[in-house]
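Dissemination and training. As part of the outreach component of the grant, students in the summer workshop were shown how a complex can be specified as a set of sequence lines and then modelled as a single object. The example used during the hands-on session is reproduced here so that future cohorts can follow it. Participants entered these lines:
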Amino acid sequence: MIEFHNVRLVFGDQVVLDRANLKISEGEFVYVIGETGIGKSSFLRLIYMDILPSFGRVRVGGYDSSTIRSYHIPYLRRSIGIVFQDFLLLEDRTVAENVAFALYVTGAKKQMIGPKVAKVLAEVGLSAKENAMPGDLSGGEKQRVAIARALVNDPVILLADEPTGNLDPAASRDILAIFDRVNRRGTACIIATHDYGMLVQRPGRVIKIQNRNFYDVV
Ligand SMILES: Nc1ncnc2c1ncn2[C@@H]1O[C@H](COP(=O)(O)OP(=O)(O)OP(=O)(O)O)[C@@H](O)[C@H]1O
Ligand SMILES: [Mg+2]
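and obtained this result:
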């Protein structure tokens, strides 16, 4: 479902990945670890084709980085949910509006939006907060809004960049429990993390980025 073939990624004179190969299958639960600045966020960006490799190719679903056109990228992203560390919520919209926004932009039918938003907010345990403003939420609640927004389009792949980076252990456990449930329903989860507690709480495949390549940690 995701394949990196001989990928080279360069920023200026800095080589982040070189001849890197990797396959991730449907429904996998994957952690991506490695030192700060090693390329974890860049790896996620390659998957949603926010950046393209300097050499080699990245294939995701039916799309190939070497042939994709910019107007295909929104279609690719419909099958990918993305959770950013800093939430990126719209501060002047309610929780429900933040989640609904992700549906509007994909052209969902109006009558589908309300029920879908309610369902996904229930899934992340935020039904009671649907009319709250982001500024009135805790960090863990904001992150759950960001996850609801990533899930509302029923993605095949969920990407999360250090989703527990700013959260206390209890909030982190809640977030990981949501990813676990989502994965059990068949969504592949790919989580960049520094939080080794996660790997113990919910074991999964661990890919380490090192020496400009990927290594399975077993
Ligand atoms: N747009 C960019 N332009 C130039 N250099 C970049 C760009 N994006 C990333 N880099 C560099 O590429 C390297 C990998 O960055 P990346 O953000 O992927 O690392 P990371 O593993 O996610 O780090 P962290 O754990 O701190 O989040 C870093 O050295 C970074 O400075
Ligand atoms: Mg990063």
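The pocket of magnesium ion (ligand 2) is lined by residues 40-41, 161 (CB under 6 Å). Students were then asked to discuss how this feature might be tested experimentally.
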